[in-house]
Amino acid sequence: MVITHRHIIAAAKTSGGSLLPSSSSRGQCDDDTDKKHFGGKHSTKQLGNKSPAVFAALVFLSFLIPMLIFGRHRPAYEATRPRIRHCCRHPINANDDGPMPKPWGWQRWGYHDFEQNFNCAGYLNDGTKPVPTMEFWETMLKAYNQEVDPTYKFDAIVPPTEGYRHDENGPPPYYAKLSPGKGRGLFASRDIQKGEIVHDGTKSDVVFPDGLTWKRFVFALPRKMACDQVAWTFTQPFEEDGPMRVVSSLNIAILMNEGDKAKDVNVEPQDGNGAPSDYSSVFYALRDIKKDEEILMNYAAYDTDYNAAGIGAQSQTWVIELVETCLNSLGWRKIGATLGLGRLKTCLSKRTLVHYSMYMLRYFI
Asked: Given a cut of 60, is residue 145 above it in pLDDT?
């Protein structure tokens, strides 16, 4: 049944008072300034003047109510649906491996938005992925030259499949292969002595100038390669009180796994005095490492702060501001007063506003 102006007037006359319960039943939304909006009778003339506000309020509630019912408890099949919607709203196929189109608002994506919206979980959890080939690294280099640094080149002597030029003897003392239960990893190519430099990130790592550049780089990659790069990206300051930077690598050095237990860790970043340092990119052997033993670090050696590095999630704050601006333009008080709700805005929690925003944007973006 369609609710018309006539039905609202009839309901008001039948109840003999307000259109909604009195202010005593409103819970936490009570406010002395709102009491004048509750318990009063609306005349035909008053309601006639407020018909546009009534219509706007009903439209708003028609979207809000389904969100409150379904938005907070998404069914299992909904939780796995891709959230990127672009052009013709074709969902992302987990088997697609071309570069992903940039959706509206991609600049505000955070690190975890890429993992989720690129459907990375299944691919990253596959422990049988092969070690990257030279073709893989060349594709990644092409995107890096295009979006970040056109002058960056691979070493002419040591290919990325072997790492980088570690010293005058060539590549670092490790090679890449599949690690049981861990996927791709690094293994000692010879016996390594305690205190020896195993990996030198100053010769291997790439540091992005800012978060937006990193995002452009990820979007320039084929989907699965983009998932790899997201998983390989970490944050690190290079000096005390220095800025947090976005760091990765374009060679097998980035495949170093983490030890399951503290006793499994056999390398760590240290400063020139041999002390552990999260500002250092040079990894030393903590003990003797036998040939073909896996090289394992502790990922907690570096602080993870995506927000400080410029790749944290910014979408929620932005959406909240957008929706508040739009709804403020409609006039919260006018709609609330017409329905007898007083300060409608104070009755909506920040979380409800976020859910409502995401619910709406999901179908229009």
From this structure: yes
